[in-house]
Write a structure and sequence with these properties.
Elements lengths: L15 E4 L17 H10 L1 E4 L5 H15 L2 H5 L3 E3 L6 E5 L1 H4 L1 H8 L1 H11 L3 E9 L9 E5 H7 L8 E7 L10 E3 L6 E4 L9 H4 L10 H11 L2 E2 L7 E5 L3 E4 L10 E8 L28
Antiparallel strand pairs: 1-9, 2-11, 3-4, 4-5, 5-13, 6-12, 7-11, 7-13, 8-10, 8-12
The structure holds ligand 6CS and fe (iii) ion (FE).
Length: about 300
């Protein structure tokens, strides 16, 4: 049994920041793919890149209809893949949409999507997690500051930072309805959070994250050093961001939903092992254990 070194310790007694030990862009310079060299360099520097119209507005309408179909299906609502808003009980997210929906399965396989993931990660990729975030109006809760990798390392056992997410807007992302915020450049620092992971943490963390939440001091330091960028965009626009970006989003108190589909691609060279800082694995609909590459 080979022991895997924990390069990114977290969830111990104290918070600890360490420099990133992994590349950001894993493909060789000039490697073929849909992302232009200068955009890939920007991704390396900032930890994110935006694509104004990754998918056309007519196509997006089809994905929005699929989202509506899913969230109005009583069987989906009753399924453990659905997470509700704590206050309104409206559906907040539905996980594993790439498996329960043929429409979203096709989106994952679309070369405009998976081709970019392969280029950033420099290998074949599989889906570690997918979800639709509904973020309905009139009070849907946001997601407090966090690094996704901190959770995917601590709780899902991803060894290295060779994972990339894409958030594709399904509704207008205004500057007022709870859009994604990222601290540019924060992906180059890993912030190990203080506090052990409770059993069944996911049952709470997907509504309101606690374990894996950075301190005010650390967030102040990071935000002062890197600033904060708010992402807005038309339906069909996409934000690709590195797994270790410090990011979050605010509540949505406007009447306008901020819905997106969120797909997490992991390199087939970085498959999940045992959690690095949690008593048990999370369910597979949150952290996949089927490593078959997207074809
Ligand atoms: O725990 C997770 O895997 C999820 N939580 C957040 C707030 N972002 C990443 C991911 O979807
Ligand atoms: Fe996140």
């Amino acid at each position: 049994m080979t022991t895997i070194t924990d390069l990114y310790p977290s969830r111990g007694p104290v918070e600890v920041a360490v420099p990133r030990k992994d590349p950001v862009v894993w493909s060789a310079p000039g490697a073929a793919g849909p992302i232009a060299t200068d955009r890939l360099e920007a991704f390396e520097r900032d930890g994110f890149l935006t694509v104004e119209q990754l998918i056309g507005e007519d196509e997006v309408a089809g994905y929005r209809r699929e989202l509506e179909r899913l969230i109005t299906d009583p069987a989906i609502r009753a399924d453990e893949r659905s997470v509700v808003e704590p206050r309104s009980e409206e559906i907040r997210s539905v996980f594993e949409v790439h498996r329960i929906s043929e429409v979203f399965a096709n989106l994952v396989r679309d070369e405009r999507v998976v081709g970019r993931a392969r280029q950033i990660l420099g290998s074949d990729v599989y889906v570690h997690q997918s979800r639709i975030n509904v973020k309905p109006g009139f009070g849907a809760g946001g997601f407090y500051w966090h690094s996704d990798f901190e959770t995917w390392h601590a709780e899902d056992g991803l060894p290295n930072m060779r994972t990339v997410s894409v958030s594709i807007a399904l509704t207008e992302n205004h500057d007022t309805n709870g859009g994604l915020m990222i601290m540019p450049g924060s992906h180059r620092t890993f912030l190990g959070c203080a506090g052990a992971t409770p059993e069944d943490n996911y049952k709470k963390s997907l509504q309101m994250q606690d374990a894996g939440t950075p301190s005010d001091e650390a967030l102040t330091e990071l935000a002062s050093r890197h600033g904060i960028r708010l992402f807005t965009g038309r339906p069909g626009s996409a934000t690709w961001f590195d797994c270790n970006c410090m990011h979050g989003s605010g509540d949505n108190i406007t009447p306008f939903p901020r819905s997106n589909v969120f797909i997490v691609f992991n390199s087939v060279e970085n498959t999940a092992v045992e959690p690095f800082a949690a008593p048990v694995r999370r369910p597979e609909f949150i952290g996949a254990r089927d490593f078959a590459p997207v074809r």
